[in-house]
Automatic annotation (TrEMBL):
Occurrences of domain Cysteinyl-tRNA synthetase class Ia DALR (ranges): 343-405
Cofactor: binding comment: Binds 1 zinc ion per subunit.
Gene Ontology MF term list: ATP binding; cysteine-tRNA ligase activity; zinc ion binding
Quaternary structure, from the entry: Monomer.
Keywords per UniProt: Aminoacyl-tRNA synthetase, ATP-binding, Cytoplasm, Ligase, Metal-binding, Nucleotide-binding, Protein biosynthesis, Zinc
Gene responsible for this protein: cysS
Protein name: Cysteine--tRNA ligase
Record localization: Cytoplasm
SUPFAM superfamilies in UniProt: Anticodon-binding domain of a subclass of class I aminoacyl-tRNA synthetases, Nucleotidylyl transferase
List of residues binding ATP: K266
SMART domains documented for this protein: DALR_2
Annotated motif 'HIGH' region, positions: 30-40
Lineage of source species: Bacteria, Bacillati, Actinomycetota, Acidimicrobiia, Acidimicrobiales
Catalytic activity, as annotated: tRNA(Cys) + L-cysteine + ATP = L-cysteinyl-tRNA(Cys) + AMP + diphosphate
Protein family according to the UniProt entry: Belongs to the class-I aminoacyl-tRNA synthetase family.
């Protein structure tokens, strides 16, 4: 059974959907004002792999992820570029989905834009004001966090030491941690009408309305990056609790992407855009980097690690290419007792332990090649079939390897095959060693042999 770390409780819990086989999950999506960076890539890949694994286990995943298309950062960026904020948001939203396609990310079943939910946001804010847990100030409507009994539970820290993330922090609020539900319009800003005054929604209100509007008041999982745990997710939870919703059963947060030990982010100016990363490397290499680190751990991304991941991908591709003929051969039976897939699933069931699951894949590749070399095609086919299934779960579909082999190496490989056919195994082994010394490997296949770089 799959167990996941619940950030709210601080421990691993069994995943038990509220309405099986449906699994309802909401993941905080992008604020579209710039190119996505590789930290965003980690986020979408983390939840893409969770979704793929849930579907592998037979769940029907109802996956919703929003697009924040009205926000302070969008307005400021548009002002600097003399653009309309919505036009700017649409431009970067289109870029976002293009990069997600390059990463082979499954698109959410629902991808709501905040601006399409203004009416529902206004209704929710009015309900909170009417119940006495929110109040109208001179610059907007604020949530009174003192009215939420367990406010701070998700943050798991002493909130007396936490400064409010709101820029207009003190004079408009009853206490510093109160947060904006609705911001009154300033000159030349996007604005919508409301009973409290013209303005626009606060960020924390948007996700509550969209998640519950699509998935219902109670759903299975809410996810995002560790930086969203507080204040964003805590503030979402506060509103939902004040409304009497069960809201998310599991809160799941992934670690940061780091550059030399420092969190990578747009605000720090140390990010590499996802576009740059995917232009330089096979997009699957970044996915492999992500799965080699546990989702709750920091992820270091360097050129050296990206090149190492590219090399590792090559081994997976070569294995898939070598095993292709026996996978298609109906005369080679599968061994139903193969245990690799159960070890892979055990790792994934343990809080998505993708590093352990990935190690199992590479061990299976090694064992599959060894089985093929000794003529045990049944074991080789079994391992190849299960590796293909595991790679699909991780979103690592194999690619085709095209290599240019020098004529002298190709000639040695041909002489080796002739020696083997003549049963001159000593000569065949000597030729194999020559090939290996030159930096190449020769592998036998059902059709004969193939040569690749070692």
């Amino acid at each position: 059974m799959l167990r996941l770390y619940n950030s709210l409780l601080g421990n691993n819990i069994a995943v038990a959907p509220l309405s099986p086989p449906e699994f309802k999950m909401y993941v905080c999506g992008p604020t579209v004002y710039d190119f996505p960076h590789i930290g965003h890539g980690r986020s979408v890949l983390t939840f893409d792999i969770l979704r793929r694994y849930l579907e592998h286990k037979g769940f029907e995943v109802n996956h919703a992820s929003n697009v924040t298309d009205v926000d302070d950062k969008i307005i400021e960026r548009a002002r600097r570029g003399s653009q309309h904020p919505i036009a700017l948001a649409r431009k970067y939203e289109e870029i976002w989905w293009a990069e997600m396609d390059r990463l082979n990310v499954l698109k959410p079943k629902s991808a709501p834009r905040a601006t399409d939910w203004i009416e529902q946001i206004v209704d929710m804010v009015a309900t909170l004001v009417g119940s006495g847990v929110a109040y109208i100030s001179d610059d907007g409507v604020y949530m009174d966090v003192s009215q939420v009994e367990d406010y701070g539970l998700l943050a798991q820290q002493d909130l007396s030491k936490v400064q409010s993330s709101e820029r207009n922090a003190s004079e408009h609020k009853r206490q510093s941690l109160d947060f904006a539900l609705w911001k009154f319009a300033k000159a030349d800003e996007l604005t919508w009408s409301s009973p409290f005054g013209d303005g626009r929604p606060g960020w924390h209100s948007e996700c509550v309305v969209m998640s519950t509007g699509i998935l219902g008041h109670d759903f299975d999982l809410h996810g995002g990056g560790l930086d969203l745990r507080f204040p964003h997710h805590e503030n979402e939870r506060a509103q939902a609790e004040a409304l009497g919703y069960g809201f998310a059963q599991i809160w799941m947060h992934h670690g940061f992407v780091e550059s030399q030990g420092v969190k990578m982010s747009k605000s720090l100016g140390n990010f590499t855009t996802l576009t740059e990363m995917l232009d330089l490397y096979d997009p699957r290499a970044y996915r492999l980097l992500v799965v080699r680190a546990h989702y709750r751990s920091p992820l270091e991304v360097t050129r050296e690690l990206a090149e190492e991941a590219t090399s590792a991908l090559r081994r997976l591709d070569q294995f898939a290419q070598r095993m292709g003929p026996i996978l298609d051969d109906p005369t080679v039976e599968l061994d139903e007792s193969g245990s690799f897939l159960s070890r892979f699933e055990d790792a994934m069931d343990n809080d998505l332990d993708t590093p352990a699951a990935t190690r199992e894949i590479f061990e299976a590749v090694k064992s599959g090649n060894a089985a093929f070399d000794r003529g045990d095609f049944r074991t080789a086919k079994t391992l190849a079939s299960q590796v293909a299934m595991a790679m699909k779960v991780l979103g690592l579909q194999p690619g085709r390897v095209e290599e240019s082999i020098p004529n002298e190496i190709a000639k040695l490989a041909t002489l080796r095959m002739e020696a083997k056919r003549s049963r001159d195994f000593a000569a065949a082994d000597a030729l194999r060693d020559q090939i290996h010394a030159a930096g190449y490997l020769v592998e036998d296949t059902l059709e004969g042999y193939r040569v690749r770089k070692s």
